[in-house]
Design the sequence.
């Protein structure tokens, strides 16, 4: 009881030292006064009495010190003193200190940011109750073996009855037009749901309710809105519940709004029950998720699903379950791990630099430490004090790193590809901060402890004289730089591979000019009153009047998408069998708008109207696969989609968006076929971004009833396929550049201190007639050895690690050797530069002068 | 280094607390100077004791709630901090005296060569 009381009192005094300090001063003053009285009574003169009084007390300051020790915690006081001393020491060496703090801030900040992303995306469990029970169900063909695929409605019906699954749901998504009273028509991603999706996930809408079982069974026209859509379109108004919205013109009643960041699939805007017609389509496009029963392992669900799938498909298909989280992050896992690994490598290089700086400072201060030791400071205390200095440095660096990290995280999230799960939630919160703090303390201890221990050994007169004259750079320092060089080489090699694969992706030949095209979705869904052909002509005419526009056209599909209207095509006078081909309705200037030129024949013209003879233009793949490489012009084609036979009037090259090979396709004149929508393709002179808003407003003028919310450069449509590579390349390249810079600093520092330490020896050599060249070599040799050894280690490491990157690479061999020499060359040049500068300095100072000052 | 070079009091460890508590019981509230004078009187060797070394004991006892300090004015119009023993302090003193007597009794008997 009394012990606890005392503990509390000491804690209080620890944090409020001022009050107790004043009280002690007052009490001691009174005590000394009594003693003075006593000595005066004994006949001493006032002067002597005062002195004797202080002596009898044992010194006022000493007594205060005793009082402090008793009333608070000695060690805490020690720490406080060490910290104060450390801060003073840092202020005395502002350059070293700020170099350490800055590089640590950079290293720790970057790592905190990357770690935050990795933590949120890969490590944290999904934000649903018992997330480990959630699984995705896949199917695949067995003969022939095919990749993981979605499920069909009948499969979902069968699989959801499996014993190990407590609940399950399936959905497929599609872009539809959402509209309603007081709501602008917009494109929305609609998730069509079968089964209890929200119940399976274990979530309830933030507003309203989810679908009732009878609504799902009866395919009731009800919808749940996503939180972002609700905020955007209903301005967060709770009255949205009960409102009616149209999806492609069909009215639906809003029954709920999801909680932010909890909805699934994450990018869906609207959920509605799957309709019977959609179920009948029997398409393999349902994503099935399920919740396992309590304590049922995934393996059992997989076994049951596999058995069932083989039984119902007569052995043609199999099925299995996989962790939902693992499936969600499958595409980004390697990329994020690579980013984290690179940022950790950068941090290691930072640590090596800081360790070198601290080590160098330690050597400078060997004398001071030896004096302190000689004066009676205990070894433990010397170590404590020095380590406190590096810890304080690390903590300041860590604190600054917090700001670096926040900025870096904002940048990372902005740069990250859309497909990264939970992007909107990522923030620097407690776990990230804790990890950052732990890393900071660890760095402070690691970097400080080694030189501290080395220093504390230096005691007595020997240390006082010998330490400042050390003629060798410690092996530890060389080893640090060697490690830096190796890490920097590894990072640059990795970055080089990624850069090349991004270049492959970006410079891939699409078969059309994607960089100067604006694409506008002209979605007529739900607008049955509009005459599509009329609208197309008006839109093309409106776009054509915009300055800078070279041509405009409409096509049913964007050239970035190869699949489309499937048609069985027969060739008159050719083989009997019909061949599959894609039908691509386009308006006359389409090929011109895409920057494609005709391979032969003519393009469509305004004369190819509904009443004119039906014509077609075929692509190279069609000529090769359907026409057997024979003459195309004049060939007569038949297809069930067009009433009369089509005459081929021209041929065009294949399009290859993202490097994908084209399939046989025949382009038909849009006026000669019935289509209910398409894309306006506008080819501009310069940057397509500059005309986005003008194009949008012109299209709105001619089609006020359409959702004109998707107006974008065509290149953006291609972007998702390379966003991940771009993200990774930017990140790793930045890290590699940093690594190279930091290692260059390390190499320079090593070479420079090589000279500083051997200044005297070199002066003697010069005095004895050594040539400048041999001086340069003397200085360069040790650093060069370190760089070469480090490079060799780095190259070996890079070759060992590169295969791990292979899933991130496109068209690049992981063992590609073209980047291997880059980092070693840069670092060697820095080493040579440092050596040249240093030897110039040595040669500049007359050797006699150097020797005299020594 | 707080411990190095400071004069030590020639008392058995822990006896200083006992002496202070006992002095306060016997003489009523006292300030540090008069406690120190009393201790010196008992020790009988005025040179040995730094009066300041009394303070850690005072702090300790006060923090444990066994003594309590209040500012008062002396007859000579000087202000001084008077320490008085608390109820808890009195109980503690009894316990310490009891412990002390038992252990000294043991040592005495041992030194006298008695069987234990």
Sequence:
């Amino acid at each position: 009881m009394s012990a606890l009381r005392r503990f509390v009192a000491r804690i209080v005094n620890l944090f409020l030292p001022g009050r107790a300090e004043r009280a002690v001063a007052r009490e001691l003053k009174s005590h000394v006064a009594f003693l003075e009285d006593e000595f005066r009574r004994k006949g001493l003169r006032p002067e002597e009495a005062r002195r004797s009084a202080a002596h009898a007390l044992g010194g006022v300051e000493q007594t205060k010190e005793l009082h402090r020790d008793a009333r608070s915690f000695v060690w805490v006081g020690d720490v406080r003193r060490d910290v104060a001393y450390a801060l003073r020491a840092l202020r005395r060496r502002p350059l070293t200190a700020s170099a350490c703090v800055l590089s640590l801030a950079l290293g720790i900040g970057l790592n905190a940011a990357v770690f935050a992303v990795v933590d949120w995306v890969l490590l944290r469990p999904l934000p649903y109750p018992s997330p480990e029970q959630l699984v995705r169900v896949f199917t695949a063909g067995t003969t022939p073996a095919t990749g993981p695929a979605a499920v069909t409605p009948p499969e979902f019906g069968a699989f959801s009855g499996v014993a190990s699954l407590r609940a399950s749901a399936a959905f497929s998504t599609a872009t539809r037009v959402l509209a309603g009273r007081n709501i602008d028509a917009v494109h929305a991603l609609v998730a069509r749901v079968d089964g209890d999706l929200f119940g399976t996930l274990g979530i309830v809408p933030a507003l309203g309710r989810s679908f009732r079982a009878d609504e799902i069974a009866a395919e009731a026209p009800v919808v749940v809105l996503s939180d972002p859509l609700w905020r955007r379109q209903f301005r967060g108004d709770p009255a949205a519940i009960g409102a009616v919205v149209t999806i492609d013109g069909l009215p639906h009643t809003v029954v709920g709004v999801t909680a932010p960041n909890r909805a699934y699939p994450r990018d869906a805007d609207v959920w509605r029950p799957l309709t019977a017609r959609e179920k009948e389509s029997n398409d393999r496009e349902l994503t099935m998720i399920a919740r396992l029963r309590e304590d049922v392992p995934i393996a059992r669900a997989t076994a049951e699903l596999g058995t069932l799938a083989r039984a119902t498909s007569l052995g043609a298909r199999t099925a299995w379950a996989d962790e939902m989280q693992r499936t969600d992050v499958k595409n980004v896992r390697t990329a994020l791990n690579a980013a984290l690994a690179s940022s950790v490598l950068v941090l290691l290089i930072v640590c090596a630099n800081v360790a070198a700086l601290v080590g160098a400072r330690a050597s400078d201060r060997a004398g001071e430490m030896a004096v302190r030791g000689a004066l009676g400071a205990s070894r433990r205390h010397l170590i404590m004090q020095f380590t406190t200095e590096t810890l304080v440095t690390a903590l300041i660096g860590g604190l600054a790193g917090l700001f670096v990290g926040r900025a870096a995280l904002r940048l990372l999230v902005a740069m990250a590809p859309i497909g990264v799960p939970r992007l909107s939630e990522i923030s620097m919160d407690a776990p990230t901060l804790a990890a950052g703090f732990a890393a900071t303390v660890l760095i402070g201890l690691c970097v400080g402890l080694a030189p501290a221990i080395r220093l504390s050994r230096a005691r007595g007169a020997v240390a006082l004289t010998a330490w400042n004259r050390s003629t060798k750079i410690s092996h530890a320092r060389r080893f640090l730089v060697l490690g830096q060089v190796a890490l920097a080489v590894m990072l640059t090699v990795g970055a080089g591979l990624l850069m090349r694969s991004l270049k492959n992706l970006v410079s891939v030949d699409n078969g059309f000019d994607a960089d100067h095209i604006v694409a506008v979705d002209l979605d007529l869904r739900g607008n049955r009153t509009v005459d599509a052909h009329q609208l197309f002509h008006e839109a093309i005419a409106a776009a054509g009047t915009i300055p800078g526009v070279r041509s405009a056209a409409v096509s049913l599909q964007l050239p970035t998408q190869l699949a489309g209207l499937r048609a069985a095509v027969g060739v008159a006078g050719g083989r009997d069998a019909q061949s599959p081909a894609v039908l691509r309705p386009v308006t006359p200037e389409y090929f011109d708008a895409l920057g494609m030129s005709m391979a032969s024949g003519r393009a469509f013209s305004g004369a190819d109207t509904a009443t004119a003879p039906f014509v077609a233009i075929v692509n190279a793949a069609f000529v090769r696969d359907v026409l057997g490489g024979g003459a195309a012009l004049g060939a007569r084609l038949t297809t069930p989609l067009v009433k009369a036979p089509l005459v081929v009037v021209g041929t065009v090259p294949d399009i290859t968006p993202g490097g994908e090979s084209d399939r046989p396709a025949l382009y038909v004149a849009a006026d000669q076929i019935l289509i209910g929508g398409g894309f306006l393709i506008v080819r501009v002179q310069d940057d397509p971004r500059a005309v986005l808003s003008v194009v949008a407003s012109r299209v709105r003028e001619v089609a006020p009833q359409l959702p004109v919310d998707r107006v974008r450069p065509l290149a953006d449509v291609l972007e998702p396929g390379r966003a991940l590579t771009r993200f990774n390349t930017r990140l790793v390249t930045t890290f590699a550049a940093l690594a190279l810079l930091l290692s260059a600093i390390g190499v320079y520092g090593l070479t420079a201190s090589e000279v500083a330490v051997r200044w005297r020896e070199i002066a003697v050599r010069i005095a004895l007639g050594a040539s400048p060249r041999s001086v340069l070599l003397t200085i360069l040799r040790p650093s060069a050895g370190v760089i070469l050894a480090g490079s060799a280690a780095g190259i070996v490491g890079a070759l060992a690690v590169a295969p791990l990157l292979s899933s991130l690479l496109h068209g690049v061999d992981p063992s590609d050797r073209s980047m291997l020499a880059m980092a070693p060359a840069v670092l060697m040049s820095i080493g040579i530069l440092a050596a040249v500068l240093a030897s110039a300095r040595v040669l500049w100072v007359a050797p006699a002068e150097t020797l005299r000052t020594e | 280094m707080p411990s190095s070079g400071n004069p030590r009091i020639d008392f058995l460890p822990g006896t200083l607390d006992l002496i202070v508590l006992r002095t306060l019981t016997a003489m009523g509230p006292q300030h540090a100077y008069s406690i120190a004078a009393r201790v010196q009187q008992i020790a009988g060797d005025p040179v040995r004791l730094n009066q300041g070394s009394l303070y850690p004991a005072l702090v300790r006892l006060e923090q444990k709630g066994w003594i309590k300090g209040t500012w008062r004015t002396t007859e000579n119009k000087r202000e001084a901090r008077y320490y008085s023993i608390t109820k808890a302090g009195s109980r503690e003193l009894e316990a310490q005296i009891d412990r002390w007597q038992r252990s000294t009794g043991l040592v005495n008997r041992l030194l006298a060569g008695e069987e234990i």
